[in-house]
Amino acid sequence: MVARADRRRVDGILLLDKPVGLSSNRALQQMKHLFRARKAGHTGSLDPLASGLLPICFGDATKISGFLLDADKRYDVVCRLGVTTDSGDADGEVLERRPVPALDEHRVEQALAPLRGPIAQVPPMVSALKHQGQRLYKLARRGVEVERPPRPVTIHALDLVARPSDDSLALSVFCSKGTYVRSLVESIGADLGCGAHVTALRRTALGPFRGEDMVTVAEMQARADSGGLAALDASLLPTEQGLQGWPDVVLAEEASHFLLQGQAVWVPGLPEPGLVRVFDANRFLGMGRIGDDGRLLPQRLMRTD
Questions:
Q1: Structure pTM?
Q2: Active-site option among 47, 76, 89, 280
Q3: How does pLDDT run across 162-174, given as a tens digit for each residue?
Q4: Is 192 helix (H, G, I), strand (E, B) or coil?
């Protein structure tokens, strides 16, 4: 255990490949301990059953986690047909077994097509959402089921990748925040008339980040063993890489000084009203917002000491 006094300031983003069986919080705590970091948080938790991309934000990067939580995500999913469970995945209790009909790609496509685009999705009972202050999954463990209003989500892409066996489908999903892949799979199983549940789920992208840049827990431990904290720090991405897609504004020294004091500034050539990434000549200052009056206001600033 690293004593609080021995923890250090670390800023940046680690793209961790979370393994199956490890909770997102446990993965976070392992990395925080390895880096001896004072402050860290993850964005977009993954169930223990799921693997893949878990961005871990250290220090000032935790200030942008809200932007990443709103980002689109990509998943590879394998589902088993003919079996439904109370959780929608392989960790749940089996509720029903039904024969799987003969399926061709055309019939599978008929089940996938209605789920693309904007849809309303009922969150599963086994989820971290709250009802009257209690997590739904805790209510589900006690056998309590409550009404869950449908929530709007967008499925940008949903495609059949392979048929690993007669009773399974391998799918790719590109979706908005708030999407439950388990619920998608249950909807597919219902349309096919046999039910389905998730047996494997892997997140391959989140916002601007892609899976090919991930590092495993074992790789990070090896870097710590061979190169110490310097090798670990070299694995971090700059905070601003988590904020791609917004225009950049570069301020002169005087304007950046006033912005960092919490004051709105006006400089020529600003973009249209909306969020922007703000820099000075040497560093990333944080997120700003162009107001309707054309001034730049601070939105979420980084520490500059």
A1: 0.89
A2: 47
A3: 999 999 999 999 9
A4: helix
